[in-house]
């Protein structure tokens, strides 16, 4: 009787050991598969990241080559064309180069630390055209200028920002990115979204490229151009780009329109590269601002996510 009981206990122990071993083996296999998938994802992400960086270098090469071909930049050039996604091993790469000189540079508002009245007036005209409060121009120039004097109307310096529930100081420097507007008095998400189609943030002040400017920006940088006149110019440009400033002036719809030589150009120095690389399940988004000045374009900033 005891012998039978001992055999039964032994069998149960063996079954328990087998079950434990099976469970451990299954767990180890699961963990190994998990580890392999993590390694694969990491490798895929590394490869996608390298493709993103390579895409930026490709854009730099294209822009450098374009500079040797022509001094005029317009949307019919090869670099400005949107290409379809290019297949790569286990994925694809897609990217676009966009001119930034056709947009209004918000850093034009303050030059050498001092508010530029003509540029503030231009930005006020743009705000008015877009149906936004023109007082935002003085608030923004106060945010960037180096003095502590509040401009009228609606200016704001440290006294205002330090009185907020979560206080901070005015930047007293040029903008580094468009998202920084959220810190400036009067700018909310809806206003920033509205502006994002017409403005940019570039590290150097400069003229707008009339071959890329939206009609709202063209009307803003001219002293007396109506939005209707600007739209007519853009319609003409879509058929035939402006070959020179002289060509642009000859095609102005109104002889009384005044545009300063320093406000306009037909060439660009700043370009935004946006790309997406997908390898396996990994996806990496790349964005870079390029400055083409002389030979090989330099990278002003680059974000990889």
Summarize the structure.
By secondary structure, the chain is of the alpha+beta class. It has helices at about 1-70, 115-130, 135-145, 160, 190-195, 215-220, 225-240, 245-250, and strands at about 85-90, 90-100, 105, 110, 115, 200, 210, 265, 270-280, 280-290, 300-305.
CATH topology of the largest domain: Pantoate--beta-alanine Ligase, Chain: A,domain 2
The CATH superfamily of the largest domain is known as GSPII I/J protein-like
Q: Low-confidence parts lasting 5 or more residues at pLDDT below 50?
A: none
Total of domains: 3
The helix content is: 40-55%
Beta content: 15-25%
Query: Compute the gyration radius: what is it?
Result: 29 Å
The total strand number stands at: 11
CATH architectural category of the largest domain: 2-Layer Sandwich
| CATH class wording of the largest domain | Alpha Beta
Q: Shape, please?
A: elongated
Series of H and E elements: HEEEEEHHHHEEHHHEEEE
How would you describe this structure to a colleague?
It is built from 8 helices and 11 strands. Helix 2 packs across helix 3, helix 2 runs antiparallel to helix 6 and helix 6 (215-221) crosses helix 7 (227-239). The chain folds into 3 domains: 2-100 and 269-304, Pantoate--beta-alanine Ligase, Chain: A,domain 2; 110-206, Ribonucleotide Reductase Protein R1, domain 1, CATH 1.10.40; 209-266, no CATH class. It is an alpha+beta fold and 305 residues long. The longest helix is centred in the first third of the chain and has 68 residues, at 2-69. A 5-stranded antiparallel sheet has the order 1-2-9-10-11. The model has no long low-confidence stretch (mean pLDDT 88).
């Amino acid at each position: 009787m005891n012998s039978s009981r001992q055999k039964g206990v032994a069998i149960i122990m063996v079954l328990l050991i087998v079950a434990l071993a099976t469970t451990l083996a299954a767990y180890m296999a699961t963990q190994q598969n998990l580890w392999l998938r993590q390694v694969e994802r990491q490798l895929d992400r590394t490869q996608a990241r390298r493709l993103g960086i390579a895409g930026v270098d490709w854009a730099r090469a294209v822009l450098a080559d374009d500079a040797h071909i022509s001094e005029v930049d317009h949307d019919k050039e090869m670099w400005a064309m949107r290409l379809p996604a290019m297949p790569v091993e286990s994925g694809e790469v897609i990217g676009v180069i966009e001119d930034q000189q056709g947009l209004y540079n918000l850093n034009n508002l303050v030059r050498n630390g001092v508010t530029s009245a003509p540029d503030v007036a231009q930005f006020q005209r743009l705000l008015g055209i877009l149906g936004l409060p023109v007082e935002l121009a003085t608030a923004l120039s106060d945010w960037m200028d180096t003095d502590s004097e509040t401009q009228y109307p609606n200016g704001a310096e440290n006294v205002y920002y330090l009185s907020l529930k979560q206080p901070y100081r005015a930047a007293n420097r040029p903008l580094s990115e468009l998202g920084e507007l959220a810190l400036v008095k009067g700018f909310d998400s809806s206003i920033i979204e509205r502006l994002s189609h017409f403005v940019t943030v570039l590290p150097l002040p400069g003229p707008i490229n009339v071959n890329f400017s939206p009609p709202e920006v063209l009307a803003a940088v001219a002293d007396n151009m109506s939005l209707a006149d600007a739209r007519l110019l853009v319609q003409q440009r879509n058929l035939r780009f402006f070959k020179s400033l002289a060509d642009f002036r000859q095609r102005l719809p109104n002889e009384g329109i005044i545009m300063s030589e320093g406000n306009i150009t037909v060439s660009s120095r700043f370009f935004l590269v946006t790309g997406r690389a997908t390898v396996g399940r990994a996806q990496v988004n790349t964005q870079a601002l390029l400055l083409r000045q002389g030979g090989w374009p330099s990278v002003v900033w680059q974000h990889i996510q």
